[in-house]
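Handout, section B. The chain below has 581 residues.
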Amino acid sequence: MRKRKLVPLLCGLLVLTACKGRPAEPSLSPKPSEGMVQPTATAVGSPCLEESAPPTESPVSTVVPSSGPTPAPAATREPLPAPWGDTPPETEGERRMAYFRAVMERFYEDRLFPDGTPVDFSDEPLSQNRFAVHDVDGDGREELIVSIITAPQPARTALVYDYTDKKGLVLELKATSQLSFYDGIIQAGWPVDLTSGAGVLWPYTLYEYDREEDTYAEAGSAQARTEALEGVKFPKEADRDGDGVVYCLNMDYEHPVDGAAYAAWRDGLVQGEERKLSYLPWAEEEIEDIENLLTLEKAKDLIEKANAALAPFLGEGAVPCEKEGWLLLEGYASQEELLEGLKEPIEGNLADDFYRCYASQILCEEDGKVYIHSNSRDILGHYYNMDLVTLTSARSPGDFGHDWTFYSAEGSGNDNEVVWTFGFEEKEGQWRICHYACQGPYSRMSVKLNQVLYGLDSTGSPVWYGTPERIEREETQWPQGHREVYLGLEIDIWDYDEDGMDEQPVRIIVTAPGIPTAEGVEVGDTLKEVLAVYPQFRLGYVDQTARVVCPFYWNYGDTMSFDFDENLILERIYILYNISN
């Protein structure tokens, strides 16, 4: 297990996842981090609790400097040394992952915390415990999340570790093992609930990330109390909404609040959706492979390398020449050189698809020289700049039926904000970009006919805001459904239920000017005008008539695509809804 693994330096995406007495891990620091609030025990007979409150420990910052470990207390064993001997890895990201591997080896092999303190494990298999490597605090680098489940109930623990060359190994948070992650907030469920509120709300403590201290500080706690709790008078005067539930915030048991006040308190701390982590079991092969995981550092490097490989296709570095409408790509003797450059950071099939779709439109090879169309950037539509600082894990591997590792990045193009999602996969020991998509600024897809909005809602049936002139209706053979044809508008309504699929798709096809999408794009617009509103984010295809299809919109099962003619004029808009209940 302690063998070293050489991690290849990856090239680089195409702009194209009641706890009293619980033994604490002793800190290598002399005292807890400043700003950590120590929860106080709750008195018997309080309005929300009869006996106990949440865990009594606050998170502690444990620092092991990379220049040499801080001396551990006499009662503990030797702290974790630097895991690379005399030859440290080249980058801080690689050193971080090496430390995370060493931390997990100490847990798994030695049954010790990083500072050398024994872990109070039960007799259950260690494989039931979990760990994850994920940027949970949003600082742009991964943390190691360790969940200890095979321990007596008071000792079940979750820990969040960080590593930097400046501070060494840092314990950002120690809490119960029931963790939920949000933007800058970690929610830790209490080990037990004595409030009778479990059916409504399991009690929890919130911890807020302090970017300056690089640790989590307690931000508050919440418990629910219902009328079912025997031996304690229910405070009906606080139950303003009359639902039989009150909430005690921050262990203020004398002043419970109703649901609206609780929601407002939580909304002031917890923002956005819960972040889903991809946990791994404590197993030798998983721990050994930590250093080969795709990290933010590696992903950024791949994206930067892919951008560099894509640059020639956008005309960057090209110079004016005698060939009208074209620019000369200096330093290239063949188009194949451009394709080979793409295949280094981008998975081969994806690079081949890109080349096959666009080479005939933007490239020209004559007499050992390669020319690029002067309008190539508009043809490709890849003029959106990404802010790589925001690159974060987006989805866990296995989503969408693919074993990909996903990352997302904020970006912008023209006046529109976009979110790019990138998929990476490992082949033959190297990470490559295998997928990319983008979500644009629009939230609803619909069409306008004679200034009247038409759309579909999620109730399972079409909703019309006007009455267009229908030309004909015809039944379709498969799947069950029918087609409605209007002036410049076709509607296909399908029903997959008879085939055992819970889907009811509706396809809208716009074929005439004057019927714009919700964002104002209509048939007859140029490709450049369309891309100014809808960012291109999936490779298009070129058929025998040189038709370009772009882009492909994907959000909540809905899609949108645009067909352009050989002059790059929009001639057809496809909108596909899933109106399943």
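Note. The longest helix spans residues 92-110. Compare this with the example in section A.
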